């Protein structure tokens, strides 16, 4: 039984398989900035060898302020003649993105353009970033960096005399219900404790803007907004008395569970904190006023 | 030897000898109207029942495209380095004089746990030593070319080539088929829905009344001692389907043009509703030629060489589904595959295969200054070691070196998206 042909197959295969490069198959989800339709390459963009040309002629950027998780930020510009692509990334990030250049504008027919749609990580750790844009020409010649300073505007937790917060860890629809000392329940179906039709003298006597207000119904109806956080806020003074905070699992939106935390802060001082887990069995209860499991009870003392 | 040749015939390989059907010393038997297997048989009156199947369990040891992430759009796992059941088939066949019925189920975990119909056919036919004919109805193997008609456990390589999987995402389709053989001549003709199992749009359904006509004419013969040759010409002519769109309602959209987070009147747009658009049909076709030779010599042992070339238009239904209505022009496909397998000892065999497929030979791309032709082709080098040789019960180790044009190089030109794989497969036929 001869072995010659088999060995030749093997040698041919090894020789062929090792020739030629390939771009990495990488979604780039670990990067702080992502470019729609771009090819992701690992390595910091500010560490790439740079030549004097091609250059980025100009950049059109409408806002230098971004928020964590921002999607669809437009960035466009013009490149040196001869440019075939543009590299975009944040200085110090894990990688950068390559986007093929577009056709020139009519008013500058020799200069290729680029049009990028940027998205940013929901967990941007710093308050400012240096966005670097570099024109590229064959064969993989990177031009000098053009810098765009970006400032991050964090969504700060709401401030107020009394803040009751609920946040959770999966893209589920949980609802915060807070019952104030008057028995008025604040939740997605009644976002303000002001009760214009109150029939009892103990109901809130404040105005629309002074009472407890639910700031947002996050992931309502499983329309995912990514916040996973709801707050009921008394901006000025909260009525003294006993409060109850409940967590209603409206829907887990296909997730297996959601771990939640409820905390009440009175002038920045914690009155209590509770943690729990919403499970599929929690979805079966009726929804609306009075629904949800009691997560936290606390008392606001008289001033 | 004669038994092994019969098994190949049984698998529906009217012209294609299976890799492990070593060599026939007699004229190849005509195709028999039963499935390939070493199935157990039970005879009750005039009815003979046969039960059998096979199992292919895979372990992807390395895949350059694997990532420990979920797809940002569909939340599908992107990791492909895993253990899974590629195919687990179980079939029952009933034979009566002139009649045959078969049901075959496939259970796999390729995209999670799935059990489905793999084959269901009812056939009327007659077999004689030198001639044979059969007319069948149901979920039948598509009579086109070499790879499509090869029974999965008989294929030396783990999967079919790109061109075969693109044009025929499944090897079975619903329809009616007539096939006959006389001495070394083989002929097959089928009328089918044109939406095979694993079709990207309407698997095992048919959105239009027009049918696909597919057939093959070929030769299959032992031309010398231990030399078995087969060759054929295949053709498909059919009608594809471009789905229409439903009516839409008016939508109010806010686009934060100046990114200030504040709704301004100039940023509010009304996207008016649109009336439904009709579905449309389009023509598609394919022509292919294939050939295969199995031979054995005292010095080399058993060897197999094969090749297939296919030209098509608007037929891609798997890899990059062709829709000339959407693209505004016909999409011409071209692909070919060539391969060889060599027995080293009675328990080890090596194989190498190269396949090339271009789903759109007329593609172009716009650079900043000019419109240039674009190479859309996929090509793969496949190297396979089979422990167990050409036997059906074996362990296979396969490395695939893939090239494509799915990525963008640093200078903006198309380049290969890394997708090499190393896969281990255990296979048993029962």
What does this structure look like?
The complex is a heterodimer of chains A (303) and B (430). Chain A is mainly beta and 303 residues long. Chain A has two domains: 24-152, Immunoglobulins (Immunoglobulin-like), CATH 2.60.40.10; 162-300, no CATH class. Chain A is 5% helix and 40% strand. Chain A is built from one helix and 20 strands. Chain A has one helix at 4-17; strands spanning 33-35, 39-42, 56-60, 65-66, 73-79, 85-90, 95-100, 113-120, 128-137, 141-142, 146-152, 162-168, 173-179, 185-186, 213-214, 229-234, 241-251, 258-266, 269-278, 293-300. In chain A, strands 2, 4, 6, 7, 9, 10 and 11 form a seven-stranded mixed β-sheet that branches. In chain A, strands 15-16-12-18-19 form a five-stranded antiparallel β-sheet, with no helix packed on it. In chain A, strands 1-8-5-3 form a four-stranded antiparallel β-sheet, with no helix packed on it. Residues 1-20 of chain A have low confidence and may be disordered. With 430 residues, chain B is mainly beta. Chain B has a single domain (2-72, 82-243, 281-429), classed as Porin, CATH 2.40.160.10. Chain B has three helices and 23 strands. Chain B has helices at 2-10, 162-167, 324-327, and strands at residues 40-44, 47-63, 83-96, 99-108, 114-127, 131-141, 172-182, 185-192, 212-224, 227-242, 251-254, 268-271, 280-297, 301-313, 332-343, 348-358, 364-366, 371-373, 378-387, 394-403, 407-408, 414-415, 421-429. Chain B has a 16-stranded antiparallel beta barrel. A two-stranded antiparallel sheet of chain B has the order 11-12. The radius of gyration of chain B is 24 Å and the shape is globular. In chain B, 42% of the residues are buried. The chains are: A mainly beta (303), B mainly beta (430). At the A-B interface, helix 1, strand 5, strand 7 and strand 10 of A face strand 15, strand 16, strand 20 and strand 21 of B.
């Amino acid at each position: 039984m001869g072995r010659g042909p088999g060995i030749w197959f093997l040698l041919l295969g090894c020789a062929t398989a090792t020739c030629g490069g390939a771009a990495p198959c990488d979604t780039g989800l670990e990067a702080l900035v992502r470019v729609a339709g771009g090819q992701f390459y690992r390595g910091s963009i500010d560490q790439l060898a740079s030549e004097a040309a091609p250059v980025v002629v100009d950049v059109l950027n409408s806002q230098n302020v971004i928020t964590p998780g921002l999607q669809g930020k437009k960035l466009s510009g013009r490149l040196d003649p001869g440019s075939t692509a543009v590299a975009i990334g944040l200085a110090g990030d894990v990688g950068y993105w390559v986007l093929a250049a577009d056709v020139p504008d009519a008013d500058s027919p020799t200069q290729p353009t680029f049009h990028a749609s940027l998205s940013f990580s929901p967990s941007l750790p710093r308050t400012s970033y240096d966005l670097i844009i570099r024109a590229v020409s064959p064969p993989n010649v990177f031009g000098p960096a053009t810098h765009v300073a970006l400032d991050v505007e964090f969504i700060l937790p709401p401030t107020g005399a009394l803040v009751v917060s609920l946040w959770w860890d999966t893209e589920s629809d949980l609802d915060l219900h807070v019952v104030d000392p008057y028995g008025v329940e604040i939740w997605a179906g009644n976002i303000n404790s002001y009760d214009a039709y109150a029939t009892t003298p103990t109901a809130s006597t404040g105005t629309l803007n002074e009472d407890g207000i639910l700031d947002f119904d996050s992931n309502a109806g499983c329309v995912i907004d990514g916040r996973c956080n709801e707050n009921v806020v008394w901006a000025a003074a909260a009525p003294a008395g006993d409060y109850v905070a409940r967590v209603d699992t409206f829907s887990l939106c296909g997730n297996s569970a959601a771990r939640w935390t409820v905390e009440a802060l009175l002038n920045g001082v914690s009155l209590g904190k509770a943690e729990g887990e919403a499970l599929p069995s929690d979805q079966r209860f009726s929804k609306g006023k009075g629904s949800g499991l009691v997560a936290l009870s606390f008392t606001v003392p008289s001033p | 030897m004669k038994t092994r040749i019969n098994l190949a015939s049984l698998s529906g390989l009217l012209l294609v000898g299976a890799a492990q059907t070593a060599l026939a010393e007699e004229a190849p038997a005509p195709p028999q109207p039963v499935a390939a297997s070493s199935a157990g048989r039970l005879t009750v009156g005039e009815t003979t029942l046969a039960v059998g199947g096979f199992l292919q369990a895979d372990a992807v040891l390395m895949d350059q495209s694997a990532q420990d992430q979920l797809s940002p759009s569909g939340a599908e796992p992107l990791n492909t380095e895993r253990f899974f059941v590629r195919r687990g088939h179980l079939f029952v066949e009933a034979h009566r004089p002139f009649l045959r019925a078969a049901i075959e189920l496939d259970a796999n975990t390729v995209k999670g746990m799935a059990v489905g119909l793999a084959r269901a056919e009812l056939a009327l036919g007659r077999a004689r030593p030198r001639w044979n004919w059969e007319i069948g109805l149901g979920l039948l193997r598509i009579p086109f070319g070499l790879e499509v008609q090869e029974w999965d456990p008989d294929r030396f390589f783990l999967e079919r080539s790109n061109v075969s999987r693109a044009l025929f995402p499944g090897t079975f389709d619903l329809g009616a088929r007539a096939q006959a053989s006389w001495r070394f001549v083989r002929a097959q003709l089928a009328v089918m829905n044109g939406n095979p199992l694993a079709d990207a749009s309407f698997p095992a359904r048919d959105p239009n009344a027009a049918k696909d006509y597919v057939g093959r004419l070929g030769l299959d013969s032992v031309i010398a001692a231990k030399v078995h040759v087969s060759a054929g010409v295949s053709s498909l002519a059919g009608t594809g389907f471009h789905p229409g769109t439903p009516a839409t309602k008016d939508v109010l959209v806010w686009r934060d043009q100046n990114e200030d987070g504040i709704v301004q009147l100039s940023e509010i747009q009304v996207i008016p509703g649109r009336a439904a658009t009709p579905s449309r049909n389009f023509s598609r076709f394919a022509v292919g030629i294939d050939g295969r030779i199995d031979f054995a010599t005292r010095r080399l042992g058993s060897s197999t060489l094969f090749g297939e070339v296919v030209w098509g238009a608007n037929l891609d239904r798997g890899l990059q589904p062709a829709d000339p209505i959407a693209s505004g022009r016909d999409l011409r496909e071209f692909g070919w595959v060539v391969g060889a397998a060599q027995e080293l000892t009675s328990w080890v065999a090596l194989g190498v295969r190269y396949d090339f497929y271009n789903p759109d030979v007329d593609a172009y791309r716009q650079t900043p200054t000019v419109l240039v032709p674009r190479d859309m082709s996929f090509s793969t080098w496949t190297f396979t070691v089979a422990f167990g040789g050409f036997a059906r019960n074996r362990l296979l180790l396969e490395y695939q070196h893939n090239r494509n044009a799915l990525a963008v190089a640093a200078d903006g030109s198309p380049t290969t998206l890394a997708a090499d794989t190393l896969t281990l497969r255990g296979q048993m036929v029962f």
